[in-house]
Amino acid sequence: MSAAERKLRGGLLLGLLSSPVRVAYLVGVGIFLWCVAQFYRPDTGFSSLISIGDLLSDSKVSALRTVPHYIYESSPGYDGAYYVQLALNPTLDNPELEKAIDNLPYRAKRILFCWSAWVLGAGQPAWIVQAHALLNVICWLALGWVLLRWFPPDRWENALRWLAVMFSHGVIMSVRHSLVDAPSLLLVALAMRWLETGRSRAGAVTLAFAGLGKETSLLATAGLDFDWRAPRTWGRVALNVGLVALPLVLWMGYVRWKFGPAQDPGMGNFTRPLAGWIEKFGVAWREAFSATPSGLLWATLAVVLALAVQALFFALRPKPAERWWRVGVAFAGMMLFLSTPVWEGYPGASTRVLLPMTLAFNVLVPRGWRWLPVLLAGNLTVAATVFEFSPPHEFYELRGEATARGAVRVLPASGWHGPERHLQQHWRWSTGRAELRLTNSSDAPLQLAVRATASSAGGMRSVRVSLGERLLWGDTVGEGAAPLRFGLTLPPGVTTLVFSTDKPAEKVGTDPRALAFQIANLEIVVQRKTGSQ
Fold this sequence. Notes:
Distance between the termini: 53 Å
Largest sheet: 6 strands, mixed
Helix content: 40-55%
Structural class: alpha+beta
Strand content: 15-25%
Radius of gyration: 26 Å
Number of strands: 11
Low-confidence stretches: none
Shape: globular
Oligomer: single chain
Number of domains: 2
């Protein structure tokens, strides 16, 4: 590199770092990429971002079975598990798809990003899986660039709006589960950018692609050139909307010809005006103020209120001449009819379904400190974002000398529910009697020091850890965390520890699983046994 090039590059870097506002944007990007990196595993890459559950193991297409990928235990997974199988078979010719994907005609409508993953993966199954997992990450970075049109890094208020959209729960949920929502938002934003700069044809074509990614994105055709005060032009506008929707209509016709009508075309996601929101608000309010509230319950209530603030903003400040208002009010109108399947969960799918409304809200809320409370209230979906960025993590951690630690493998066997994690806490629930298999692949015994906490799903119960007939640890535990400590000599070969209790598992609250006791933050310290080589 020449001296001139080094000077130019140094000048650009100093320019970026000279403004605290620009640094905030860069920090946001850095935090996002760091969070994504936590999902990488040497054996399965970034496939843990797809949320493939083990309950799908018997029905997965062959191409997915042959590719190493992360599997979530005791879980059906999430929608990304279906889309990755479409990406592996983008022509829909594989007969395995009908067994692998529930309501295939409905899901196959959203084909654009499956095609994209196939192209990025050059048709190679292992590459396609990784491309599908990272497509949302690529779109997140591209969306950040597109949003600079409305939120340039020249003031703190713009930084707040940019970060609020980029880290909104809907966007991050789409990244976390490899869904179609964030990529669709990118295309909507890009189309609006081109429409605003007079590139109407490019904007319309981009909206047509957005419809192939997610059919509800076609509501953003409200942003096409339209003068509501000139009825004579309405026919031309309707024709333009029809042309934008035509690619999706043709593709849906092909899907219907191939598989027949969808069992559920998606109409179950809609109900009477406000009935779904009111039901969700009532449940969220009661649970947030219950005897055992949690951060997730409070974040869920914040999401419900934030979306209401956004919708009310469009209802109370009608600006039909502004294309972003028309887009925002179109999605706010859809929000009125969303039913339980969209609202249910913690916090649920509503934030990703209504992402264009969130973006329109941040674009249109007037600048100035007087509007700051409205801006903050409408962006409270960010409160739920932290619960999405919890990468899969086993409930145990091996520590100790590297060579000794490398000789030990830990396998949760029967009796455990899948691993769970929040921030620095990681745990598994048992179903009553659970096994932990420890394998010592060295030719000498190893010394283990085991530390964890144990708690009960409800009421007091006795919990024991045993090796054969030998009791290693036992205590009576309740809902509070009780310390679990014991030492163990691990001989070469396989050793099975049994965790048991004196009471059957039970269901707690709305959790559908039968829970007995929880073992959390299990730490296994490995040392070479004294006197061994």
